[in-house]
Amino acid sequence: MLKNDPLEQWDRDTFLHPSTHWADFARGKAVHRIISSGEGSHIVDREGKRLLDAFAGLYCVNVGYGRTEIADAIAAQAKELAYYHSYVGHGTEASVTLAKMILDRAPDHMSRVYFGLGGSDANETNIKLIWYMNNILGRPEKKKIISRWRGYHGSGLMSGSLTGLAAFHNAFDLPLVPILHTEAPYYYRRPDVSMSEEAFSAYCASELEKMILKEGPETIAAFWGEPVLGTGGIVPPPKGYWAAIQEVLNKYDILLVADEVVTGFGRLGSMFGSEHYGMKPDIITIAKGLTSAYAPLSGSIVSKKVWAALEQGTDEMGPIGHGWTYSAHPIGAAAGVANLKLVDDLGLLENAATVGAHLRKAMSDAIGDHPNVGDIRGEGMLCAVELVSDRETRAGWDDQKPAVTAVARLLADGVIGRAMPHSDTIGFAPPLCLTKAEAEEVAEKTAKAIKGTFGS
Ligand code: PMP
């Protein structure tokens, strides 16, 4: 901490930080860190400490920090036209260009994009569009939504209800009706160790089908899922999972929403996770990687099938009663246009695939045999190391202390990882421009931090 830094006092006295122990923070007992600058995969804090950000902020700074192409595009847009709304048919050059660029990159069966500010509000929009659609189609009872335990879809009232993590429900009276949660496709934590990946996928699909039949298929509107579970522990799906789920959804005429807030625009080494896993979503939620977080912007990409119902809806009822002041904000849109160009120009999909695989291999080589490392997993530029107290039984701890301790040690050694909430897992989601040498540094220092945590 800098000596007599006025910012530290202002911070404690004025600022309510998200996902923070507020009382401890106000008392000066919690982490307090102010970040001043960034370049590539590194950030520099106010004390001048340079850190390798192996979580890309909150898995969002995909192109890395300090990209002048995006900064210049934002500045040019702010000077030319800082704001105009997108209500009643208005738009800006940047927002229209970005919509076209998104659709050019999205799966072929997608049709149009609605813009928001962040992932949470985009998921709120999606719920409204789905309810609107079923009202238009004359099936107003088809409104329930099924998401998964361990899913993360945001912090709003409805998006927080979709989220399947206790901390986002407890003390907020969530989840709200009509949101239900089914089995997480968490192969390492499968109920029976002898199950193959395919058998576990079939089990998850049959649990989903059971829930649909119990509730009544005519009442279930949609199923929500991240192609790879993110905040719930960075968990790629077992083999055959999405095909098995899709089959159940098709059977009961239930829409699939792919929440690609983390996986969209290259994190898995493919443009979209849907494409990566052969999913055919009716709506795709996008945010983070859309602008690499240079400005807040999100979107809901709707399929041709959903669009057909929405088109019919406004024909029958007039303009849609849904909008945010900052929908398609031109500064966010200008950032998005420059960012998507950079993702292409720098070949970041390819880099995410190759360097991400290199990171997981380096991690396995460095720490895979450790008695407290239960699982090393990931996909594209995602990597997770799950800690266990016993490799045989896969037992963890009542809290996630070892992961928290290891992440603190790692930070002291100059690398940012994340102790994932609700699991004993250290997560990594570096910028997609990470180099092989940086990946090796992350693995080597993680191994050191884990060994230090467990005493050997
Ligand atoms: N969906 C997913 C899959 C996410 O990971 C997140 C954020 N981590 C959100 C939705 C919510 O996005 P936001 O925080 O921008 O509201």
Automatic annotation (TrEMBL):
Keywords: Aminotransferase, Pyridoxal phosphate, Transferase. It holds the Pfam family Aminotran_3. Its cofactor is pyridoxal 5'-phosphate. GO terms for cellular component: cytosol. Belongs to the class-III pyridoxal-phosphate-dependent aminotransferase family. PANTHER family: AMINOTRANSFERASE (PTHR43094), AMINOTRANSFERASE CLASS-III (PTHR43094:SF1). This is Aminotransferase class III-fold pyridoxal phosphate-dependent enzyme.
